[in-house]
Structures are given as C-alpha cells and as structure tokens.
Amino acid sequence: MQRLKRTPEFKEQALSKARQRGTRTLAELAAELNMSLGTLKGWLQTESKRGADAAMPSCLPQSLPARQWSGAERLLALNESHGLSGEALHAWCRERGLFEHQLKTWRDAFCCSAEPETAQDRSESKAELKTLQGKHEALQRELRRKERALAEAAALLVLQKKFQALLGDEE
Fold first, then answer.
1. Considering the domain boundaries, does residue 120 fall inside one?
2. Which of 40, 106, 119, 153 has the fewest CB atoms nearer than 10 Å to its CB?
C-alpha cells in the first residue's frame, strides 16, 4: 500500500475541521477527508501535545489583576497593544483593566533583558563572579576544616567509651 504525502496546508485544514466539527464524529470527518481515522487522531494528539508545550495563551485573562499575569500573558498584551497610541491605546487599556504605565514597564523589562551587555557590565559581572568564587572557596575550606574537627571529636568520643568500657570491666 502506498502512503499519501499530505501537505502542511491540508493537515492544518483537517485539524481545523476536526476542532470545529460540532456533532460529527472523527470517523465521519476522516471519511469526508478521505483519510485514515488513526492518522487524524494522531495529528490531533500531536497538536494537543505541542499546544500544551507552547503554553501561549490565546486571550488575556479577565478575572486576574494585571500584576498577577504570567510572562506569556504580558507578552500577549504587549503584542496586542503594539500598534495602538493615544485614545485607541487608552480605550484598549480600559477594556482589559490595564494602565498604560503597566504596558510601558512590561515593555521596558522585556526589552532590557534582550539587550546585549556593555563592556563595563561584563567587567562588573566578571568581578562579581570572581568575588563570589572566592567566597565559595573560603566556605568550602571552612566546611572541610569543620568536618575534620567533627570526625576527630567523634573518634575521641568512641575511644573514650572504649576506654571506659575496658576500665569498667576490670573494676
């Protein structure tokens, strides 16, 4: 039996019809599309897994206050409001319960994290890393010293108990 190579456009249309099939069954839809029911089910499963991995919201939350939105929801809000300005932006913000300064703060935070570091920032971070590594090494040395002292104290206690046990037997 020869396998049919389906185009990505056909696959997208089939998935769209499957999601909006209403009361029809998947078997009826597969027969209408002249394809295997197993193939259609497989496509739906992979699409749902991929959709769960992406975790990009399709719409902004209505019940949560804006300060509790996730990063993906904030990015979606920035994307939706990107081309707006003036009254249109104010109206959009009112509809979603946002303030313009929140969008500005989110945009600045998003853009700042993507900007490359300057030479001064890199040198400062290297210096900070070096000091942290020095502190780490000092703490490691102190920890080793304390572990040795603890092992010595435990050995002395064991020897003391053995000595007392030996003296106790003789008396």
1. no
2. 119
Interatomic CA distance for residues 74 and 3, integer angstroms = 44
Both structure tokens of 153: 């104290």
Same domain, 43 and 82: no
- 131 in a domain, yes or no? no
CB 27 within 8 A of CB 36: no
Evaluate whether residue 127 is within a structural domain: no
Crossing angle of helices 37-54 and 8-19, rounded to 10°:
90
Q: Are 92 and 84 in contact (CB under 8 A)?
A: yes
Q: pLDDT, tens digit, for every residue of 85-102? A: 788 888 888 888 888 888
For the chain, strand residue ranges (E) read: none
What domain range includes position 106? 66-113
Contact (Cβ atoms closer than 8 angstroms) between residue 48 and residue 80: no
| Secondary structure (3-state) at 97 | coil
Tell me the whole-structure pTM to 2 decimals. 0.36
Mean pLDDT value of segment 51-74: 68
Report how many domains make up the chain.
3
Indicate the residue among 74, 97, 113 that finishes a domain: 113
Instruction: Evaluate whether 37 touches 56 at the Cβ level (below 8 Å).
Output: no
Q: What is the CA radius of gyration of the chain?
A: 33
